[in-house]
Amino acid sequence: MKITAIKHQVKNLDRVSVFVDGKYGFSLSLDELLSQQIKNNDDIDGVHLKKLKKLSEDGKLRARALEWLFGRPHSIKEFKDYMWRKKADSELTEKLILEFTHKKYLDDIGFGVWLVEMRQRSGKSNRQIKSELFSKGLSKEDADAVLEGQPETEQDRLKNLINKKSKIPRYRDDSAKLAKYLVGQGFSWGDVKQALALREFED
């Protein structure tokens, strides 16, 4: 077999299409093309062709994974789950994890800080937030670290949530129903009872 043409792709100028014996064989990024040192009229056997096709598929999956990563912060566990859904082999997954963590594209602590800020803005309790952090693969130490690093306390968040929900008639006129809602959001009964009592005192 022989490489008969190498053409820039119209929709992606960073990739080239490689033709073998006059037919499309595979595509490579420009970096991959240079690293493999292939050119027109090179002879190629079946083993080498299979290797290049695997390199091509891995490269395209890496590009899709990067696009997915840049959509929002992700944990390493989320990335592993993504690669599993894409049917990537474990060797490629671990290779990309090493690359992306080194480049800070993947960062459990950074992801944790982002998630905590998002959930705190929606009034979630630390218990709920920590449970979600665990489900995303963060260790107890990392989850505690990102929660402790936040300027807003859980008591502040509880107070703000009480003020917000108290504007709704069904909660404003029924403190027991409001308390049940707050406990359902993961706040402890003791904290809820104290916060509601303080609010009544201030009113």
Main sheet record:
3 strands, antiparallel
* Total helical elements: 11
Q: Tally the beta strands.
A: 3
Q: Tell me the number of structural domains.
A: 3
Distance between the termini: 85 Å
**What Rg, in angstroms, do the CA atoms define?**
27 Å
Return the average pLDDT rounded to an integer: 88
Features:
203 residues, mainly alpha, Arc Repressor Mutant, subunit A, 3 domains, 3-stranded antiparallel β-sheet, 11 helices, 3 strands, 9% strand
Architecture overview:
- The chain is mainly α.
- The protein has helices at residues 30-36, 46-69, 76-85, 90-102, 108-121, 126-135, 140-148, 154-165, 169-172, 175-184, 189-202, and strands spanning 3-8, 15-20, 23-29.
- The N and C termini lie far apart (85 Å).
- The relative contact order is 0.07.
Offer a quick outline of the entry.
The chain has 203 residues and is mainly alpha-helical.
Set down the secondary structure blueprint:
Elements: E1 3-8, E2 15-20, E3 23-29, H1 30-36, H2 46-69, H3 76-85, H4 90-102, H5 108-121, H6 126-135, H7 140-148, H8 154-165, H9 169-172, H10 175-184, H11 189-202
Antiparallel strand pairs: 1-2, 2-3
